[in-house]
Design a protein that fits this description.
The structure is a single chain. A 6-stranded antiparallel β-barrel has the order 1-2-5-4-3-6. The protein is elongated, with a radius of gyration of 17 Å. With 123 residues, the chain is mainly beta. The protein folds into 2 domains: 47 residues, no CATH class; 64 residues, Beta Barrel (Elongation Factor Tu (Ef-tu), domain 3), CATH 2.40.30. The two termini are 22 Å apart. The chain has 2 helices and 6 strands.
Length: 123
Protein backbone atom coordinates (compact mmCIF):
# COMPACT_ATOMS: atom_id res chain seq x y z
CA UNK A 1 0.00 0.00 0.00
CA UNK A 2 2.93 2.33 0.62
CA UNK A 3 3.73 2.71 -3.07
CA UNK A 4 0.15 3.71 -3.85
CA UNK A 5 0.13 6.43 -1.22
CA UNK A 6 3.64 7.65 -2.04
CA UNK A 7 3.08 8.02 -5.75
CA UNK A 8 -0.54 9.13 -5.85
CA UNK A 9 -1.47 12.61 -6.90
CA UNK A 10 -5.12 11.96 -7.64
CA UNK A 11 -8.22 12.44 -5.48
CA UNK A 12 -8.60 10.37 -2.30
CA UNK A 13 -11.65 8.54 -3.69
CA UNK A 14 -9.65 7.38 -6.72
CA UNK A 15 -6.75 6.30 -4.53
CA UNK A 16 -9.01 4.07 -2.44
CA UNK A 17 -10.53 2.51 -5.55
CA UNK A 18 -7.00 1.37 -6.47
CA UNK A 19 -5.95 0.29 -2.97
CA UNK A 20 -8.93 -1.80 -1.88
CA UNK A 21 -8.57 -4.56 -4.54
CA UNK A 22 -4.89 -4.96 -3.57
CA UNK A 23 -5.64 -5.87 0.06
CA UNK A 24 -5.98 -9.65 0.45
CA UNK A 25 -9.42 -10.65 1.79
CA UNK A 26 -7.78 -12.80 4.47
CA UNK A 27 -6.54 -9.56 6.11
CA UNK A 28 -10.18 -8.68 6.82
CA UNK A 29 -9.44 -4.96 6.53
CA UNK A 30 -11.25 -2.18 4.74
CA UNK A 31 -9.36 1.11 4.72
CA UNK A 32 -11.38 4.21 5.46
CA UNK A 33 -10.84 7.92 4.99
CA UNK A 34 -12.60 10.89 6.47
CA UNK A 35 -12.93 14.46 5.28
CA UNK A 36 -14.67 17.48 6.75
CA UNK A 37 -18.28 17.57 5.57
CA UNK A 38 -18.85 20.23 2.93
CA UNK A 39 -15.14 20.99 2.59
CA UNK A 40 -14.68 19.49 -0.87
CA UNK A 41 -11.43 17.89 0.33
CA UNK A 42 -12.43 14.56 -1.20
CA UNK A 43 -12.05 16.26 -4.60
CA UNK A 44 -8.51 17.51 -3.94
CA UNK A 45 -5.25 15.67 -4.59
CA UNK A 46 -3.94 13.49 -1.79
CA UNK A 47 -1.80 15.53 0.64
CA UNK A 48 -3.37 18.71 -0.84
CA UNK A 49 -0.44 19.04 -3.21
CA UNK A 50 -1.33 20.21 -6.68
CA UNK A 51 1.33 18.49 -8.74
CA UNK A 52 1.17 18.66 -12.52
CA UNK A 53 4.27 16.46 -12.70
CA UNK A 54 4.18 12.71 -12.42
CA UNK A 55 5.61 11.19 -9.27
CA UNK A 56 8.82 9.25 -8.71
CA UNK A 57 8.85 5.49 -8.22
CA UNK A 58 12.46 5.13 -7.10
CA UNK A 59 15.34 7.25 -5.84
CA UNK A 60 19.06 6.76 -6.39
CA UNK A 61 20.61 6.35 -2.93
CA UNK A 62 24.18 5.83 -4.05
CA UNK A 63 26.45 5.45 -7.06
CA UNK A 64 29.72 3.55 -7.21
CA UNK A 65 31.41 3.23 -10.59
CA UNK A 66 28.95 1.78 -13.07
CA UNK A 67 26.49 0.57 -10.41
CA UNK A 68 23.80 2.42 -8.50
CA UNK A 69 21.59 1.53 -5.57
CA UNK A 70 17.90 2.47 -5.65
CA UNK A 71 15.24 2.78 -2.97
CA UNK A 72 12.00 1.47 -4.48
CA UNK A 73 9.42 3.09 -2.20
CA UNK A 74 7.02 4.15 -4.94
CA UNK A 75 6.88 1.22 -7.34
CA UNK A 76 4.85 -1.98 -7.46
CA UNK A 77 7.57 -4.44 -6.43
CA UNK A 78 5.95 -7.20 -8.48
CA UNK A 79 7.15 -5.31 -11.57
CA UNK A 80 10.78 -5.03 -10.45
CA UNK A 81 12.98 -7.89 -11.60
CA UNK A 82 16.38 -8.26 -13.22
CA UNK A 83 16.51 -6.40 -16.53
CA UNK A 84 13.85 -3.80 -15.73
CA UNK A 85 14.85 -0.23 -16.66
CA UNK A 86 14.34 2.97 -14.66
CA UNK A 87 14.84 6.39 -16.24
CA UNK A 88 15.34 9.85 -14.76
CA UNK A 89 12.27 12.01 -14.38
CA UNK A 90 14.27 15.12 -15.22
CA UNK A 91 17.33 15.22 -17.40
CA UNK A 92 19.19 12.17 -18.57
CA UNK A 93 19.72 9.07 -16.50
CA UNK A 94 19.05 5.39 -16.98
CA UNK A 95 19.71 2.24 -14.94
CA UNK A 96 18.96 -1.46 -15.43
CA UNK A 97 18.11 -3.64 -12.42
CA UNK A 98 20.61 -6.39 -11.63
CA UNK A 99 19.02 -7.61 -8.38
CA UNK A 100 16.53 -6.59 -5.72
CA UNK A 101 16.25 -7.23 -1.99
CA UNK A 102 13.05 -5.81 -0.54
CA UNK A 103 12.90 -2.10 -1.29
CA UNK A 104 16.52 -1.88 -2.43
CA UNK A 105 17.75 -2.63 -5.95
CA UNK A 106 21.26 -2.91 -7.33
CA UNK A 107 21.47 -1.56 -10.87
CA UNK A 108 23.88 -1.10 -13.75
CA UNK A 109 24.18 2.52 -14.86
CA UNK A 110 23.48 2.93 -18.58
CA UNK A 111 23.26 6.74 -18.56
CA UNK A 112 24.76 8.75 -15.70
CA UNK A 113 22.72 9.10 -12.50
CA UNK A 114 23.48 10.86 -9.22
CA UNK A 115 22.43 10.25 -5.62
CA UNK A 116 19.03 11.77 -4.94
CA UNK A 117 17.86 11.49 -8.55
CA UNK A 118 14.16 10.60 -8.93
CA UNK A 119 13.39 7.76 -11.34
CA UNK A 120 10.38 6.13 -13.00
CA UNK A 121 9.91 2.62 -14.28
CA UNK A 122 10.29 2.64 -18.05
CA UNK A 123 7.48 1.23 -20.14
Amino acid sequence: MTHYLWQEDSEIEQVFQKIIPEIPQRFNQTPLYEVKVGSGYEQQPLYFIGSPNSTAQAVVTGVRGDTAELWLGGVDLRKVEAGVVFTAMQGIGKVRVISRDGLVAQTKVEQAVTAGMALRLMG
